[in-house]
Design brief:
Elements lengths: L5 E5 L2 E7 L6 E6 L2 E6 L13 E6 L6 E4 L4 H9 L4 H12 L10 E6 L4 E5 L4 E5 L4 E4 L7 E2 L7 H9 L6 E10 L2 E7 L3
Antiparallel strand pairs: 1-2, 1-10, 2-12, 3-4, 4-5, 5-6, 6-7, 7-8, 8-9, 10-11, 12-13
Length: about 190
């Protein structure tokens, strides 16, 4: 089954996987304190604005980590740094940016990990933001409402690989973050 991009958010960790039929030539890279989805060196030129973006950032005070499938990661992070509660930062940013205006009306998905953890989605027909107490998955297609799932790994690199290997079609790359005593630890997996 093809669910597109998806995230899993738990109270103490989160992960994101890029799945793509149209633009598989992407990878996760570390850049300026963030994990960024970027084209590989052999990717064809494109003017598509949804191909490259920060998919994971942490706040400057290391109180929150934000994960998502697009440019909403940056304003959510900025609102958290300004003192917004996580739920409000998610709702306001998802509403302001709305779903992606591409051929598929791709939903935006995002999550916040911190003292309070949340997962959210904005689709053409709805905005859903929920607190999470168990690992919760939301995807851009098919599974486009939060639902509980399993996420066994607790190391960020292993978690990224676990998400990459979830039984959904067209995996491209994955990123993950884990809360620890001294802040957040991130990892990623770009396939074999």
């Amino acid at each position: 089954m093809y669910v597109g991009r998806f995230i899993v958010v738990a109270p103490d960790r989160a992960a994101y996987r890029v799945s793509s039929r149209s633009f598989p030539n992407r990878r996760v890279i570390e850049r300026e304190g963030a994990l960024t989805v970027a084209p590989t060196e052999d990717a064809p030129e494109t003017d598509n604005p949804y191909i490259s973006y920060n998919c994971l950032r942490t706040t400057g005070d290391s109180e929150h980590a934000v994960i998502g499938n697009g440019t909403q990661v940056d304003p959510i992070t900025e609102k958290l740094e300004l003192g917004y509660p996580p739920r409000d930062a998610l709702v306001e940013s998802l509403l302001a940016l709305d779903y992606e205006k591409d051929d598929y009306d791709t939903p935006r998905i995002a999550g916040v990990v911190g003292e309070e953890s949340y997962v959210g989605i904005v689709r053409r027909d709805a905005v859903i933001v929920e607190a999470v107490t168990e690992p919760t998955l939301v995807a851009t297609y098919e599974t486009d409402a939060p639902e509980q799932t399993d996420l066994g790994a607790i190391d960020p690199d292993a978690m990224a690989k676990e998400l990459y290997e979830f039984d959904f079609e067209h995996p491209v790359c994955a990123a993950a973050v884990v809360a620890g005593d001294s802040g957040f630890e991130t990892g990623f997996y770009n396939g074999a």
